[in-house]
Design goal:
- The protein has 320 residues and is of the alpha+beta class.
- It has two domains: 77 residues, RNA-binding S4 domain (Structural Genomics Hypothetical 15.5 Kd Protein In mrcA-pckA Intergenic Region, Chain A); 221 residues, Pseudouridine synthase (2-Layer Sandwich), CATH 3.30.2350.
- Helix content is 24%, strand content 23%.
- The chain has nine helices and twelve strands.
- The longest helix is centred in the N-terminal third of the chain and has 13 residues.
- The radius of gyration is 24 Å and the shape is elongated.
- It comes from Teretinema zuelzerae.
- Belongs to the pseudouridine synthase RluA family.
- This is RluA family pseudouridine synthase.
Length: 320
């Protein structure tokens, strides 16, 4: 019987065999994969194994070339690059959007408004795989969190399994400070802590700090700095609307003005025990339409405050 051989890389390290194989043979059900493993048609270093066998760097995974594996094996073999072959380039994929920071573990871009994260025309399809991911049997690089289609700003992509695991854990434990700038209808005067429940009963917690009232033709508007403590779908949009301060342009949640709303994921702050080489914070410049409104309808110093990044400084204790 013919077997196809594959060598695991650092981005497969510590994963269960069944999860690695599922990536390689996506057309097969888990029950079919378990059957192949049980029959010895999938092996690790030529030895019989179990679905929960943990793989390590340099393991030789062999898969029998039979009818139910043939088509997937052809695809995997064409995608997989031998990790022992010399590498070229700096392990960075071309990106069609402004790159805020990139290393071998993580990529941060400034997402434009109007571009979805997933699906047709989404970032997950427009931003290529990391070179290391193309050498891995099971790891695929991609977006690590979500922003709504019309929300601009900082968004993170994995470049290695280590980076993906670290970032995902930080998001789950709320170890990062996620700061947004929004322009809302109405005027807020004092810092507030908003706590609500989403449609599933889960808490939505957001701290807000008013930065400035409008002073131009749109006087009844405010620039707000948000820090979200939870990350529910449409959280800022919903909570702003519930309190009578919908985001300007967010007709779905009560804005009187049509068009794209004004919400920008401006800054992502990391704890001291962050990944090596990662700066303390990643900030994203405002899109031009946001800048234009600040220049036209807010006091002169407001745009300078935002562009200097002082608006995100730790002295804003109300958000800490």
């Amino acid at each position: 019987m013919e077997f196809q051989h594959f060598t695991t890389t650092s981005d497969d390290e510590g994963r269960r065999l069944d999860r690695v194989i599922k990536r390689m043979l996506p057309s097969s059900s888990l029950s079919a994969l378990y059957r192949l493993i049980r029959k010895g048609l999938i092996r690790v270093d030529a030895a019989r194994c179990n679905p929960d066998t943990v793989v390590h760097v340099g393991n030789d995974i062999t898969i029998a070339v039979i009818d139910e594996t043939l088509s997937d094996l052809r695809r995997t073999a064409s995608d997989f690059q031998d990790p022992t072959m010399p590498q070229t380039g700096d392990d960075r994929s071309p990106c069609p959007f402004p790159v805020l920071f990139e290393n071998s573990d993580l990529l941060f871009i400034n997402k434009p408004s109007g571009v979805p994260v997933h699906g047709d025309g989404g970032l997950d399809r427009l931003i290529g795989q990391a070179e290391s991911a193309s050498r891995s049997l099971s790891f695929r690089s991609g977006p690590l969190h979500r922003l709504d289609k019309e929300t601009s700003g900082v968004i993170a992509f994995s470049r290695s399994l280590h980076g993906a695991q670290w970032f995902s854990e930080g998001m789950q434990t709320h170890a990062f400070n996620k700061l947004y700038l929004g322009i809302v209808e109405g005027r807020l005067e004092e810092p507030e802590r908003w706590e609500d429940r989403d449609e599933y009963g889960r808490p939505m917690i957001t701290r807000i700090l008013p930065i400035s009232d409008g002073s131009g033709s749109l006087r009844n508007i405010s620039l707000i700095l948000y820090r979200i403590e939870t990350g529910r779908k449409h959280q800022i949009r919903i909570q702003s609307s519930l309190r009578g301060y919908p985001l300007l342009g967010d007709a779905r949640y009560g804005s009187k003005k049509g068009g794209p709303y004004y919400l920008h994921a401006g800054c992502l702050k990391f704890p001291e025990d962050r990944l090596e080489g990662l700066p303390p914070e990643i900030t994203a410049p405002l899109p031009e339409r946001f800048i234009s409104l600040l220049r036209k309808d807010f006091p002169e110093n407001v745009l300078a405050l935002v562009q200097s990044k002082a608006v995100y400084c730790s002295e804003n204790e109300e958000l800490q």
